[in-house]
Design a protein that fits this description.
The complex is a heterodimer of chains A (about 230) and B (about 240). With about 230 residues, chain A is mainly alpha-helical. Helices cover about 80% and strands about 0% of the residues of chain A. Chain A starts with 11 loop residues before the first helix and ends with a helix. Chain B is of the alpha/beta class and about 240 residues long. In chain B, helix 3 crosses helix 4 and helix 5 (about 140-150) packs parallel to helix 6 (about 170-185). Chain B is globular and about 55 Å long. Classes of the chains: A mainly alpha (about 230), B alpha/beta (about 240). At the A-B interface, helix 6 and helix 7 of A face helix 2, strand 6 and helix 3 of B.
Chain lengths: ~230, ~240
């Protein structure tokens, strides 16, 4: 059986017109989500470790809910639920025109924060209790102790896991095809449609995702050896 | 300077401190000793409110720790503390360990805190290690840095919580030397320790604890010199630790 695969349509022009803009958006989405997600996730982790029961509860509900719902559904819900006015409010006409793209950034940040928060929680708990005592003993407030003593150590301990989660996140960004955001995968699919090669196009797409994710994994492994705190 | 008044503390339903009362005057070197689990470490941690108390009160230099209006971080910044496991900040260099709280808590300038920190580091004899990280130093060296870190805050009193218990025997001496020197300079000190030699030679007051209570609170001359006047529990403790 001949497969009759034909990749000849993947020219430099296609790469430039379809793939690169898509890749650019996918990377943007990944990086913005990572930064915002870690910040939000750290706050949620601190709430979960707080001594106030109501803060713990809110954080627990947030994390448990989002971790129990498939990402694809969350993406669809947020896209359908957030009114158009919100996008024109945050980014004017540009926001309205790129509603799926903006919606994806918000959804991913909120969704990934649930996962990042569990990583940060483990990281914060990995810092010995004595360090907190030492911070307090020299007169630090709770927030100083967290910012200057606990979080820098928690972050270092957890950096490899945070980055690994980010690689998973990069792969998950391909799910935004469901709301029509123009990401890397959509770039491939669009090119496939234009040149009437909708099946072939999935192979190079998969290869690209693999190469990017795999090389990032290798990088994380290298980094891990470098950043460990000498104890 | 430190007034501990009838304090009690519970962990759940377990009472760790029962009605402890004592006074520490300026310039006193007080050794707190007793069997493990007697509440020594808990007692010393209540002085700077690292461990909350449920009953009684502690007044440090005129400030009550149980008054809700008390700014605890500010109070703690004036009370130096040295821990059993050093607790230097492992992600920071020795220099940063010494200057961090001076800058962030006391609001000193970088230059000033560096000057003060280096002076204290020199005092514990470790100037050469200022750019290293805690993990690159031996236990004894780390503990001396921890003492320098506490001293650079210009504390009015120093609390030592078993400062030599986690050290190799060879390194105990270097840490005790620093503590002896500090005592001779007139620093007010409260030390939880099993180093009875240090207690005998340097301290002027001994608090002996058992089962969460202060059993003995007397001058060290009396504690070691007149064993016949001691309580049975203290006699028993002394006979066990002093026979070697």
């Amino acid at each position: 059986m001949a497969l009759n695969l034909d990749f000849s349509f993947l020219t430099a022009d296609v790469v430039k017109a379809n793939l690169l803009p898509g890749l650019y958006y996918s990377l943007q989405l990944t990086v913005v989500t990572m930064v915002c997600g870690i910040v939000l996730g750290t706050l949620v982790a601190l709430m979960r470790l707080s001594s106030r029961p109501w803060l713990q509860r809110i954080a627990a509900v947030y994390v448990d809910t989002l971790r129990s719902i498939p990402l694809l559904m969350v993406i669809l819900w947020f896209y359908l639920l957030i009114p158009a006015g919100f996008y024109s409010f945050i980014a004017g006409g540009y926001g309205l025109a790129h509603r799926p793209e903006f919606s994806a950034v918000i959804t991913f940040t909120i969704f990934e924060a649930a996962y990042y928060s569990e990583i940060m929680r483990a990281g914060i708990q990995s810092v010995p209790r004595g360090q907190v005592y030492a911070g307090y003993a020299v007169g630090m407030t709770y927030s100083q102790c967290m910012r200057l003593v606990v979080l820098p150590q928690a972050f270092r301990n957890m950096l490899p896991v945070l980055l690994t989660q980010t690689i998973v996140l990069f792969q998950d960004t391909s799910l935004v095809y469901a709301i029509g955001a123009y990401d890397f995968l959509k770039g491939f699919l669009t090119a496939g449609q234009i040149y009437n090669r909708p099946d072939e196009v999935l192979l190079p797409a998969a290869a690209c995702y693999f190469v990017i994710s795999f090389s990032l994994s290798m990088l994380v492994r290298r980094l891990q050896a470098r950043i460990q705190i000498i104890r | 300077m430190i007034d501990i008044k009838n304090i009690s503390k519970w962990y759940g339903s377990f009472q760790v401190l029962t009605d402890c009362t004592t006074t520490i005057n300026k310039g006193d070197v007080v050794v707190v000793c007793g069997p493990s689990g007697s509440g020594k470490s808990t007692l010393i941690k209540t002085v700077n409110a690292l461990e909350p108390i449920q009953q009684g009160d502690i007044v440090v230099d005129g400030t009550s720790i149980s008054d809700p209006k008390t700014n605890l971080p500010k109070l703690r910044s004036r009370v130096g503390m040295v821990f059993q496991h050093f607790e230097l900040f492992p992600h920071l260099s020795i220099t940063d360990n010494l200057t961090l709280a001076q800058i962030k808590v006391l609001g000193r300038s970088k230059d000033e805190s560096l000057k003060r920190g280096m002076k204290m580091l020199d005092r514990v004899g470790l100037s050469a290690h200022k750019d290293k990280f805690p993990g690159q130093l031996s236990g004894g060296q780390q503990q001396r840095v921890a003492i320098a870190r506490a001293l650079s805050m210009d504390p009015i009193v120093m609390l030592f919580d078993e400062p030599t218990s986690a050290l190799d025997p060879e390194m105990v001496g270097e840490v005790l030397d620093v503590m002896v020197q500090l005592a001779h300079e007139g620093m007010t000190m409260m030390c939880v320790t099993h180093e009875m030699g240090f207690a005998k030679r340097v301290s002027n007051k001994v608090i002996f604890m058992d089962a969460g209570k202060i059993v003995e609170d007397c001058s060290s001359a009396d504690f070691f010199g007149k064993p016949e006047e001691r309580s049975p529990r203290a006699k028993d403790f002394l006979s066990k630790i002093l026979q070697h």
